[in-house]
Design brief:
It is a single chain. A hairpin with a 6-residue loop joins strand 11 and strand 12. The chain is of the alpha+beta class and about 350 residues long. The longest helix has 14 residues. Helices cover about 20% and strands about 20% of the residues. The strands form four sheets. Strands 1, 2, 4, 5, 6, 7, 9 and 10 form an eight-stranded antiparallel beta sheet that branches. It starts with a helix and ends with a strand.
Length: about 350
């Protein structure tokens, strides 16, 4: 490659905001949590996790409902705005006075309550949010959705922080600090060391209630922000705060009904770390599986809300699940036996 081509490629990489550099150093930025107060959310530390195509995850996924208002994490200037999906979704970048960039991906591109992809601007960004605009920390700058490569998963905000040297840093510690919570070590984010044996509900008492509160707090579904039930102050009593935190966990994991009752489905999910038991036949179905009916060529993806999403083509399968996707298919006598609803397509 000629020197001129190398220079041009370097300029292109810089302009587009892509970089091969990533830092693993822990850095905590003083930010406002990017989801407007009063709206449900949950998140965990997935920075550096493997992604398709050999990529690694450079942000934190904050799971929210469609059209959840997203706010500026800092005061600064809008440096980049994507209003029409070109493959990776609608996005907004905000840069603070120190040159740090805060990036919001998968902004909404649908009419509320649909997945129509019409890209009506007012459902993505407030009118005054344009490239070059000054914003204040806490100001609504966008609305959450599933644009880009999030079309086949749940609505969420993919949030990134980049240094002035154009290196990404783990946003999780800054997000935890923004909500006044201690940073949980990676080893404890998803692990549950307690095996639950019984149903729990309002009024239940015992060490298993305390273990459940610890599990919810560790995974970001906080029972309380301070006092009884908060991190380090879990109790043995199952009260309304525990019920509310559990219901938020169930909604996020697609466990139905999400009422805050700790029954066999939720218990199995936690004990098996991500598996759900179908109560009628005791078969295990794991979120993320590729499944098919023995008598049908159609392959489905088990989405996070436990819907079966039809993978419409081999190209789609390779694009979303890798070249060896067909090696991971689990075949059933009949998918109807799983009693899972059918959802959208994986395109």
């Amino acid at each position: 490659m000629s020197k001129i081509k190398v220079i041009l490629l370097s300029i292109l990489i810089y302009v587009l905001g892509f970089t091969p550099f990533k830092t693993s150093a822990v850095e905590v930025r003083d930010i406002v949590f990017p989801v407007e107060a009063g709206w449900d959310y949950n998140f965990s530390d997935t920075y550096g996790a493997a992604r398709s195509g050999g990529r690694s995850h450079e942000g934190t996924d904050i799971m929210v409902e469609q059209m959840t208002p997203l706010v500026a994490a800092v005061s600064g200037r809008v440096t980049y705005l994507v209003e029409h999906d070109q493959g990776w979704g609608l996005a907004i970048y905000i840069e603070d006075n120190e040159g740090y960039s805060y990036r919001y991906l998968h902004i909404n591109n649908d009419t509320p309550g649909t997945d129509d992809g019409k890209e009506i601007r007012s459902y993505a960004f407030p009118k005054n949010i344009v490239r070059g605009a000054r914003v204040t920390a806490g100001q609504v700058v966008a609305f959450a959705g599933d644009s880009g490569n999030a079309e086949w998963v749940a609505h969420h905000l993919h949030f990134e922080i980049w240094t002035p040297e154009r290196a990404s840093i783990n946003a999780y510690p800054s997000l935890m600090a923004a909500i006044g919570q201690p940073v949980i070590s990676e080893d404890n984010v998803t692990a549950s060391s307690y095996h639950f044996m019984r149903d729990l509900e309002l009024g239940s008492e015992g060490d298993d209630v305390k273990a459940l509160q610890v599990y919810l707090n560790v995974n970001g579904f906080y029972v309380a922000s301070s006092g009884a039930g908060s991190t380090g102050q879990e109790t043995t009593y199952f009260g309304p705060a525990t019920q509310d935190a559990l219901a938020r966990f169930q909604r996020a994991k697609g466990i139905s009904p999400a009422t805050g009752f700790f029954g066999v489905i939720t218990r199995t999910f936690i004990n098996e770390e991500g598996q759900v038991t179908d109560e009628s036949n005791n078969s295990l179905v794991e979120v993320g599986w590729l499944v098919k009916d023995k008598l049908s060529p159609r392959v489905y993806y088990v989405a996070t809300n436990l819907e079966l999403m039809w993978i419409v083509s081999e190209d789609s399968a390779r694009r979303n699940f890798g070249s060896d996707w067909y090696l991971n298919i689990k075949e059933f006598e009949s998918l109807d036996d799983l009693k899972l609803p059918y959802g959208d397509y994986v395109l």
